[in-house]
From TrEMBL:
It comes from Candidatus Cryptobacteroides avicola. The gene is rimO. This is Ribosomal protein uS12 methylthiotransferase RimO. Pfam families: Radical_SAM, TRAM_2, UPF0004. It comes from the Bacteria. Catalyzes the methylthiolation of an aspartic acid residue of ribosomal protein uS12.
């Protein structure tokens, strides 16, 4: 009788860049373990937790997940617990003492020792294989590691190190393997996607990478996340405007608009540059959807600077906007050189005011789409409703298009078989987050 293979459950906290790291590790571990779903509630021989250490809330969530795993270990659900990622990298000395019940700790880039701990023979390189943990029709493609930017509030360069681009041929090979598994949408990610290629090729190569990814059979949508405004490569806009596979969607975290605050943040752009870039994006890519993030309560943000931010958001009318309150992070320039003078309660008030403003803008944008016909991809199906997205919605961070099952428009098609497929729908309703649609045809 063959020996029972051990089971491994991986839990990923934080950003999609972490998810890619987890998927690379699982692709190697599958030779020795049966991989359990991330939301598995049963027993596991080993649980692997990939942590986030970016800001206070994210650190707290990672710690709580570790503590929950410890309780499940005590109750007998879990055998061993291994933790890696940004939190354990950042607090490599403190965490083993704080939570001694964890069996092994590894840093954010300790992949070889982690694989050795798992009993897996580590490859010469990290490899291009992935064990996809997202729905099988979309996947993230991490094109670089680390960051050379030194924004005053950000701890990522301290945790992840300098910017290192993944060679283009490796990315194309990885994307090809993902397409062969049924992935139809690639979401290109990095700490700063626009920096891609500078270290390897002496120039920014994001536009060329997008073009070459679009040539891969099976890939129908390519989406860009996390683009830095300083030095934004204009040729990316050319590709987006003419290549139908590159979604007219740009995630570009701006963080603020006040010259004073931007200077203190070390963002290397000013208000005039930012406004000109937004205008350029909207004029060169008609219909582009812009997603951004803002920070409220950063040192230097008084009432005047916050009002300037609100006025800018009213003016720019971002289709998507997220925000968070400034968190003083040890080791950053801001923590060393600035005083965090905005009280926590005032930060929350400003955050609420900003997001209330954005809610109205988002509602107006969504309502403007009522009556339009759009191509969407089906993410899931439940209780007679398809959960879909167009090129203007990114998974996990944006709203959804909810489409009721129509047995006439989908005659002869088993409902669940449409997950990962494209539909043409007509938008019939909207709120500030989600849209309602009806099926016109299966594409």
């Amino acid at each position: 009788m063959p020996e029972r293979r051990q089971t491994l459950q991986a839990i990923t906290m934080g950003c999609s860049k972490n998810r890619v790291d987890t998927e690379h590790i699982l692709a190697q571990a599958v030779s020795c373990y049966d991989i359990l779903p991330e939301d598995w509630n049963g027993a596991a021989d080993l649980v692997l937790i990939n942590t986030c250490g970016f800001i206070g809330d994210a650190k707290e969530e990672s710690i709580q997940m570790i503590l929950q795993a410890v309780e499940r270990k005590k109750s007998g659900d879990y055998g061993r617990i291994a933790v890696f990622g940004c939190l354990s990298q950042r607090y490599s000395d403190e965490m083993p003492e704080l939570i001694p019940e964890v069996d092994a700790w590894f840093g954010a880039r300790d992949f070889t020792p982690l694989l050795e701990y798992l009993g897996v023979e580590a490859p010469a390189g990290f490899g291009t294989r992935r064990h996809v943990t997202t729905p099988s029709h979309y996947a993230y493609l991490k094109i670089s590691e680390g960051c050379d930017r030194r924004c005053a509030y950000c701890a990522i360069p301290h945790i992840r190190g300098k910017h290192i681009s993944v060679p283009m041929e490796e990315l194309l090979a990885e994307a090809g393997l993902l397409a062969a598994k049924g992935v139809r949408e690639l979401i290109v990610i990095a700490q700063d996607t626009t920096y891609y290629g500078l270290d390897l090729y002496g120039e920014r190569k994001l536009a060329e990478l997008l073009e070459r990814l679009s040539e891969i059979d099976g890939i129908e949508w390519i989406r860009i996340h996390y683009s830095y405004p300083d030095g934004f490569p204009q040729d990316v806009l050319d590709v987006m405007s003419r290549n139908p596979k590159v979604c007219r969607y740009m995630d570009i975290p701006l963080q603020h608009i006040s010259d004073k605050v931007l200077d203190m943040m070390h963002r290397h752009v000013d208000s005039a540059w930012t406004r000109a870039l937004i205008q350029e994006m909207r004029s060169r890519v008609p219909g582009v959807v812009l997603r951004t993030t803002m920070i409220v309560g950063h040192p230097g943000e008084g009432k005047r600077e916050f009002r300037e931010l609100l006025d800018f958001v009213r003016e720019a009318r971002f289709e998507r906007l997220g925000a968070f309150a400034y968190s003083e992070e040890e080791g950053t320039y801001g923590a060393i050189h600035y005083k965090d003078t905005v009280r926590a309660g005032e930060k929350r008030r400003r955050l609420d005011e900003l997001m209330t403003l954005q809610s109205g803008i988002s509602l107006e944008y969504n309502r403007s789409r009522i009556g339009t016909e759009e191509k969407v991809i089906v993410d899931s199906f439940s209780d007679g409703v398809y959960v879909c997205r167009s090129e203007f919605e990114s998974p996990e961070v944006d709203g959804e298009i909810l489409v009721k099952y129509d047995d006439i428009a989908t005659a002869g098609v088993e409902p669940y078989s449409l997950i990962g497929e494209f539909l043409k729908v007509r938008i019939t309703g909207a709120d500030e987050y989600d849209l309602i649609g009806e099926i016109i045809e299966v594409l």
